[in-house]
Design a protein that fits this description.
Largest sheet: 5 strands, parallel
Strand order of the largest sheet: 2-1-3-4-5
Structural class: alpha/beta
Shape: globular
Oligomer: single chain
Number of helices: 11
Distance between the termini: 6 Å
Number of strands: 5
Mean pLDDT: 90
Low-confidence stretches: 18-22
Radius of gyration: 16 Å
Strand content: 5-15%
Order of helices and strands: HHEHHEHEHHEHHEHH
């Protein structure tokens, strides 16, 4: 198992061992995010939330992916407007959040991004029966992809996203939340065209699999 699956396996297994009642529960999983979460560049069944759910089940974790309201171009404000309402009615017991790339693309400043991220995290935790069952995921580095220049506006993509990822990791640390770092593994796309989707910007199915397996 890689860092993604191993982190979530550890998180869910530890809680499942506490009591017999907890061990028998089925986690209700909601994945929040943007194109990376919906799996743009691959088929829906090749998205990381679907793969993650499948592989956790194979590792004897009872879990169902009950909602993935992510769409292309989603920003933190989009999560607030359109995805948190889905979460509110989902009775979720486990959530992953991967957001930020489109905030950077539209030149959202770091302070605004952080404030909106805090709002989202606080809202999610308020909905979860166990506040620790939220995993924050860092933003991949699309700067290594062939079409990066179409979205960078002359800016340094890696530097900008690294700043946003520092914020994500900092907010996770404040709350003692698990994190999964996709930033470094995404850099492999620079040397392997098979890891990039035909659109030149999104990960391919193979890259999504590397993120998760």
């Amino acid at each position: 198992m890689n860092n993604f699956l191993l982190s979530l396996f550890f998180l869910l297994t530890i809680s499942s061992c506490r009591t017999t009642t907890v061990a028998q529960q089925t986690y209700r999983y909601v994945s929040l995010g943007d194109s990376y979460t919906i799996g743009t560049g691959a088929n829906p069944e090749e998205s990381y939330p679907v793969l993650l759910t499948k592989h956790l089940k194979e590792n004897n974790i009872k879990i169902d992916l009950i909602a993935n309201p992510s769409v292309n171009g989603r920003t933190t404000q989009g999560v607030i407007n359109f995805e948190l309402p889905v979460l509110d009615t989902s009775k979720a017991t486990f959530v992953t959040l991967l957001i930020g790339v489109n905030d950077w693309v539209i030149a959202t400043d770091a302070e605004t991004f952080q404030n909106k991220l805090i709002y989202i995290i606080d809202h999610i935790q308020a909905q979860l029966p166990d506040k620790s069952k939220l995993v924050l995921i860092t933003v991949p580095d699309f700067g290594v992809t062939p079409a990066a220049g179409n979205y960078s506006r002359g800016r340094n993509v890696s530097k900008g996203l690294a700043e946003f990822n520092t914020i994500i990791l900092s907010e996770a640390k404040k709350r003692n939340l698990k994190t999964v770092d996709l930033f470094e593994i995404s850099k492999k796309m620079v040397a392997n065209s098979g890891l990039v989707a035909p659109d030149g910007i999104h990960p391919s199915a193979k890259e999504y699999t590397l993120w998760e397996t």
